[in-house]
Design goal:
Order of helices and strands: EHEEHEEHEEEEHEEHEEEE
Helix content: 10-25%
Structural class: alpha+beta
Shape: elongated
Distance between the termini: 12 Å
Radius of gyration: 20 Å
Amino acid sequence: MKRMNQKPYVLLLSLILLAVLAGCGKEETAGEEQGYQIYYINKDETAVVRKAYEPEGETTEQLVAEFLRKLQVNPQEGEEKAAIPSGVSLKEYSLENGQLSLHFDSAYLNMNKLYEILCRSAIVRTLCQIPEVEYVNFLVGNNPLMDSNETPVGPLSTESFVENMGDEINTYTETTLDLYFANADGDKLVDEMVAIRYSSNMSVEKLVLEQLIRGPITKDAYPTIPTETKILSVSTKDGICYVNLDEGFLSQGYNLLEAVPIYSIVNSLTEIPGINKVQILINGETNRVFRESIRFETIFERNLDLIEEGS
């Protein structure tokens, strides 16, 4: 029962808190089909803009180095600004298994909140056009970049972002989420419909996970995920949603049937159009076991048998 009706609303903000997180799909394989783009910050520092670019390099290593240089300088024409401001230094970077890790100096933390979010978006959108770059990971020194809730931002991808350019970056959206929590006995799932307003720069997948961690709002539903659980990343590709959580998820303090927390996530996410299956990772690993019987190597599909009748 996929009931995600979305209705856009525009809100003018003086301070914009955007959650532009998690997972790096290809923007329509931009480098191959549409030509490469370099993303900049507009003159007013309120939006990301892009300019067509023809690179000189050909190999992955050459393209990464070239794009990183372009991200640190203002364009030759126009009044746009470099995504990485002059006071911020990129100390080193490395690419391994599709993840590009960028190590910035401590000056990165001095950017104002909005500029830093736009910076992140521009960097990810630019670098993830390179076919071998699947994710971009932000670090300050050797420590992961943290968001305003002191949660690691985690590897990011273009699939983490709604394609909002210009003034649309200030758009907020209202939607209804179909979430599954535990019943009173902890052996079944109950359905809870939640109307919520959120920044359209946050992926719906992450929004669902945040609401599951926050817990139910009705008296007949009970939590399934420990509140200390951190979302490290979430992305969707080819109908599979990849959910990367920290070990807080394993610290289950609830008296639940072992399948209930797993399918609380799976059934809730598969309510989103385009998601048919879910892969859960713990700290980026699938070779883990939940309560000694459920293996995270499994790609989970929706389980209707666990839903309580009448829910």
